[in-house]
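Lab notebook, bench 4. The sequencing result for the construct came back, and we need a structural model before the next group meeting so we can plan mutations. Quick request posted to the team channel:

Model the 3D structure of this chain.
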Amino acid sequence: MHEPPDFDRFEDMMFLEPHGPDVYVGLSPRYPWGRVYGGQVVAQALQAAVHTVEERYKPHSLHGYFIRGGTSDEPIRFEVDRIRNGRSFVTRRVVARQSNGAIFNLSASFHVVEEGADVTARTMPAGVPQPDELPDETWSKLLERRRVPAEAVEGRTAVWIRVPGPRSDDPAMSHLALAYASDDVPFDAAASVHPERRPEMDHDPMFMGASLDHALWFHRDAPGDGWRLHLLEPMGYTGNRGLSFGQVYSTDGVHLASVAQEIMFRHLAEPRE
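Done. Here's the predicted structure in token form:
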């Protein structure tokens, strides 16, 4: 067991130490809820994949499965498998492990930037309050957040998120910052449709939940240190599993990314202690 670091900069948390061919090790800060934040593992796994890809290839999508909760009391080992090296696309698989086994599995695809049509079919809702108009709900110095009132987004779940620190001229770090932030909102959106959930309680003891899988599609670049609106809506709930899907926008309404996540959300017979 080691003492978890207290990172002051996002870039420091994204530093991975090489441990042999295509193997990297990263560290985790301690989080208020105990387990490692899923977005951190997503971003670090993507970083491990980036280390094995030529700079001209940019991530365009990732798909991951949360296998078990991670702990901040030990490092995370990221093992990269070079699935395919193509002329236009590159594919990587990353398995994140700790002493109890695999905690996360990631597939990431990279694409050479190509010229072509640029069409936006989804637009940010009009009249959404800007971050400086909303109360602070920040839970980490590496992730600032401002929740948008539900009535402003027709009952959907919307949160402005900013990852302070990454240089605005570093596209690679911008992708990692977006991956890190993308896990913060989908769970709440998916859980919001459960008929017995009490929305006034952030952590309802009558429920046990966990993220199951996560998908992110990168559409356009934006400065890594800017505010982004994560706008999610629930798709449904069945078999104790919920699904949410949504979009990420810049402050000026540019559609930056799309995200989807499935969660497990069980209603308990007795409250958790």
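Residues 37 and 56 are 30 Å apart (CA to CA).
Will bring this to the meeting.
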